[in-house]
Amino acid sequence: MSGKQAKGIMQRKLPLQLPPTSVRQVRALKAFSKGEASLEQQILAYQYLVKDLCEIGGLSFHADSMELTCFNEGRRHVGLTVLNLVETPLETLKKNGALVLTKDELQEK
């Protein structure tokens, strides 16, 4: 299946090839990076980063290349880590020792 698209199966993109990206998404990322994003842009930037760039819902396996499989799994790992941090209650992360607390945060207890 190298280089060809099988019926019903999406062709995997190359590691550094961008997924389909809209002007709105790029504007949202730029505003987000400057701390100037509206609520809508923040949500759009977050979704684009986690779902599209990190491909958390995608398949990591690449039949033609173990290196591409590993690269895809690394990308997916970043997205899943961010998603886990966002969706897990802060108190749970603190209790599990998943966070490094600063001196100020330790004193807040």
Q: Keywords, please?
A:
flat; 109 residues; 5 helices; 55% helix; mainly alpha; disordered N terminus
Describe, in plain words, how this protein is organized in 3D:
The chain has 109 residues and is mainly alpha-helical. The protein has one domain (23-101). Helix content is 55%, strand content 0%. The chain contains five helices and no strands. The protein has helices spanning 23-34, 39-53, 66-87, 90-95, 103-107. The radius of gyration is 18 Å and the shape is flat. The N and C termini lie far apart (56 Å). Residues 1-10 have low confidence and may be disordered.
Topology at a glance:
Blueprint: H1 23-34, H2 39-53, H3 66-87, H4 90-95, H5 103-107
Quick rundown:
This protein is an all-alpha fold and 109 residues long.
Query: Radius of gyration in whole Å, from Cα?
Result: 18 Å
Into which percentage range does the β-strand content fall?
under 5%
Largest sheet: none
Quaternary status: single chain
Shape: flat
What's the helix count? 5
Structure classification: mainly alpha
Give the low-confidence spans: 1-10
Q: Termini distance?
A: 56 Å
Total domains: 1
Question: What series of H and E elements makes up the topology?
Answer: HHHHH
What is the strand tally?
A: 0
Helix content: 55-70%
**On the 0-100 scale, what is the average pLDDT?**
86
